[in-house]
Design a protein that fits this description.
The complex is a heterodimer of chains A (about 350) and B (about 600). Chain A contains 14 helices and 2 strands; from the N terminus they run H-H-H-H-H-H-H-E-E-H-H-H-H-H-H-H. Chain A has a domain of about 190 residues. Chain A is mainly α and about 350 residues long. Chain A has a two-stranded antiparallel ribbon. By secondary structure, chain B is α/β, with parallel strands linked by helices. Chain B folds into 2 domains: about 230 residues, no CATH class; about 250 residues, 3-Layer(aba) Sandwich (Rossmann fold), CATH 3.40.50. Chain B has a 6-stranded mixed beta sheet with strand order 10-11-12-7-13-14, sandwiched between helices. In chain B, strand 8 and strand 9 form a beta hairpin. In chain B, helix 2 runs antiparallel to helix 9 and helix 3 runs antiparallel to helix 4. Chain B is elongated and about 90 Å long. Chain B starts with a helix and ends with a helix. Classes of the chains: A mainly alpha (about 350), B alpha/beta (about 600). Chains A and B meet through helix 7, helix 12 and helix 14 of A and helix 4, helix 5, helix 8, helix 10 and helix 12 of B.
Chain lengths: ~350, ~600
Amino acid sequence: MDFSIALILAQDGMTTGAVYALLSVALVLVFAVTRVIYIPQGEMVAYGALTIASLQSGKLPATAWLLLALGMVVFAMDGWRHLRHAANRGSLSRSALAHLVWPLLMLGLLHVLPSPSLLGQIALTLGVVAPLAPLIYRLAYEPLADASVLVLLIVSVAVHFVLLGLGLVMFGAEGVRSQAFSELRLHVGPLTLTGQGLSVIASALLIMACLSLFFGYSVAGKALRATAINRLGARLMGIPVAHSGRLAFLLAGLIGAFSGVLIGPVTTLYYDSGFLIGLKGFVGAIIGGLVSYSVAAGGALLVGLIEAYASFSASAYKEVLVFTLIVPVLAWRSLTSHGQLEDDE
Amino acid sequence: MSRARVWVAGRYAPSVCVLLIVLAGLAPVPEYWITLANYIGLYSLVALGLVLLTGVAGMTSFGQAAFVGLGAYASAVLTTQYAASPWVGLLAALALTLVAAAALGAITMRLSGHYLPLGTIAWGLSLYFLFGNLELLKKFDGITGIPAIKLLGFDLNSGRHIYLLIWFTVGLAVLALLNLLDSRTGRAIRALKGGLLMAESFGVHTARTKLLAFVLAALLAGLSGWLYAHLQRAVNPTPFGLSAGIGYLFMAVVGGAGQVWGALIGAALMTVLSDWLQGVLPALLGQSGNFEVIVSGSLLILLLQRAPGGVWPMLVSGVQRLRPKSTGTLPTPVGLRTPALASALPRRQQPTAGSTLLQVQAVRKTFGGLVAVNDVSFALAAGEILGLIGPNGAGKSTLFNLVSGVLPLTAGRVHFMGQRVDGKPSRWLAGAGLARTFQHVRLLPSMSVIENVALGAHLRGHCGPLASVLRSNRREEASLLAEAGRQLARVGLGDYALREAGSLALGQQRILEIARALACDPALLLLDEPAAGLRHQEKQALAAVLRQLRSEGVSVLLVEHDMDFVMGLVDRLVVMDFGTRIAEGVPQEVRRNPAVLEAYLGGVD
């Protein structure tokens, strides 16, 4: 491996690492707020990539129908609760807006705009895929909000399987690669920078910046942080904890779908590719201890780099290397927490 | 069917099941059912391991399929490439699984909470990709031409032939697990779920016990892998991937993690369901999708939302409603069924009354800038009840944690029976004769009262897992349970021996904790605010127990903030306020001490 190859690999690694970093931030967010280890985040990535690819090939993405179907179920649940407990009328109309009107709006737009511009494609993809996450939260996790982390984890795995099966039904078994954002190539010394790689890294940085502004300065962001630190305390302060969960899932959905949009042109994605991508984000998140956003993002970047170099020098063992990486990290984590006999759950 | 008949049916159900299983193997049952039963048996073995690991010990593993793979590949390589007998393959399979599990477990079993399942996902994936990439294992194509198992001159070369071997193995595994759980080792494994501190305080080596549960679960998985390789006669990496590992965990959870029979129910239910869905759904919905995972995944989510405990507990509570009279008692542990085998446990050499038992010298604890315990000294003589009192926030609990080895000291020394003990772990202190109770009761709520007490006598027994599985520990079990029964009678809870510990009132649970501590045969009893949160009558019952212990010459360090409660009980008092010792002496003097009055009632300016 000479220097120029090393640089190219570094660029590859940074590009995929940036996407893993986004995912790991989303996973930390969801875990901190809801204690859910959100394995299906990988499916959000795959759905995002496959949705924008089917938009580009002029098809109506099946995820829009899934959005409508899930929305109808959740609205029916809300309606049922309304009938039984006579909640206020406003909540029901809000539910109708979010769960019926929005999916129908998306379907309408998809019909009206058969070939939108790139920005339009991205917006539609986010609009269709991201709201799936809070719907999944409502259906699968919210009834179990007080269950143990283990039960929530098992539910996560079950949700992952359901979404995987749905992905095959909706998109078929063929892999897709969406169109590149830019064909730009910059020659800097021995290095060729691709516009695609640069835009992925730039968007990842932009999203991280937006997130840190959101958590630092907005009331909703602060409420999320408060919920993450102490659920009971947040509830006593009047923060609706259930809403925090939905908001965290919506953010995770946005990040997941956007990660899919970013990674779509870089690599060929199949309906089942999301799982491994999500898990690599997890390796990063675990390096961050599921608590620290910045360490998690750094860890995920490291995973991307290791993967890039491993795929060059020992491609068959790429996955072995990445997932074995986690073992020393875990060992180090357990050594640093040594002596604490009190369980943290 | 009358209720009495249901009861009889329940009693003989296991033997009837065994008979049916054997008959099914001999009768002309269609091949399809035999195949299904074989797979249920193989999956049950893995799920049984998960019941022990996840359900009982509270550690989640998604990686069991990798151990199945290790077992299968070990035997496959040896029998195809070195022409070894499958029985040599079995030994190799178990040895390889043992070594791999010990190595992986040594690293991952120390993880707490959610790190552990994620860690198992990681090495589960690593091993899967390793199977698929090693030349020795023929990469993703896998190994074919594996010979059949030969047993007593029979070639077990068809599903029907291996069926009885598989279910015989499952039967042995069930029996072994039931034996293990009802033993000293089993109680130690069950104690892991009650918090590591509690287990360590009674001498359980928690790291070693966790590793034991992990290795046993892995061995069951490896055994299943060996059977799989010689049933299929071919192996490839696919059935040892992460989704298979997840599937095994689902089986254990659906059946009811923590329930030995739940593993069998879960394995059967999931196997039959997925087989049925694979047959039915394509006919309903067309061939184009993998509808089976959608439906079974959704069903699992619904099940967890409706019945988080799994199917087996639902069945049990359904049957119990039919029983003639439900007494609410748990099954009798084996040690109680053979009281004749019991002999008195060896007792500790108790220190002579009046000699210094515990000496605390200038002990200091700071948290950052806060001095929680400020150079406190006191001594406790054997046979004495010393009260350590003080208002809320005085530093009593911190001092208690320093003496009981939970927190490290910043400065100072603690001597116990002449030995320096500060900095020693809780487990060591338990062995030295220091037994404690907890301010927030730490019992195993679903375990019987008497088994909770028997856990306290952990260090007074020696039998390990092998003796437990083979039931060669009968004498020791009988002696341990007899001792537990004596301690229960001593504190007046003798009638509650087989009740669930969680069903007792708080006051009784506190007294139960004292019985558990007494089962250690301690030289000194440390009681951490035993009266906190108790009602008046419960306090009186507790005081009666403590008075009786005093008359029996037990040495006690009693930490308490309720002054009235300790006044009539203790021989001497040490009073703390703001981390400092402000008074010491007999109760009557202390009660008149102006510094104490100021601390409790506020000063008069």
